[in-house]
Amino acid sequence: MNNLDVTFSALSDSTRRSILAQLRGGEMSLSELAEPFDMTQSAVSKHVRVLTDAGLATMEKRGRTRHCSLNPVAMKEAVQWLDEYRDMWMGSFENLGDYFAGIQNQNEETD
């Protein structure tokens, strides 16, 4: 459960979610990752470090350049946890749909 806390904490920041979205396209250098953001490369590096500490991304230094990659396997535990609640919510939405259909039928019968 501790890994879940670290994962969701890392995902709680919109910049870090944007970084992960960029990495879905494949490996990128840290400077490439920093381009779309209005912040220093050092600030982006700190965000990437949070993601790597959470296991959501990897960073490898090659020469003077740091390359980042997505590690989708690390999200598996979070996805499994969310899936447990998906069934509950889907059932709730179906029940709500049935409820509204019942109200609509009652209204049509009284008209």
How would you characterize the overall build of this protein?
With about 110 residues, the chain is of the alpha+beta class. It folds into 2 domains: about 1-70, Winged helix-like DNA-binding domain superfamily/Winged helix DNA-binding domain (Arc Repressor Mutant, subunit A), CATH 1.10.10; about 75-110. The chain contains 5 helices and 3 strands. Strands 1-3-2 form a 3-stranded antiparallel sheet. Helix 1 (about 1-10) packs antiparallel against helix 4 (about 40-55). The protein is elongated and about 75 Å long. The protein starts with a helix and ends with a helix. The mean pLDDT is about 85.
Query: How many domains, as an integer?
Result: 2
Q: What string, H for helix and E for strand, traces the elements in order? A: HHEHHEEH
* Unreliable sequence segments: none
What level of helicity do the residues show? Answer: 55-70%
Q: In CATH terms, what is the architecture of the largest domain? A: Orthogonal Bundle
CA radius of gyration is: 21 Å
Structural class: alpha+beta
